[in-house]
Amino acid sequence: MPTQQQRIAVATIPRRGLSRVEAAAYIGVSPSKFDELVADGRMPGARRIDTRKVWDIRELDLLFDALPHHDSPAVPNSWEDA
Question: Which of the listed residues 9, 18, 51, 72 has the most CB atoms within 10 Å of its CB?
Answer without folding.
Answer: 18
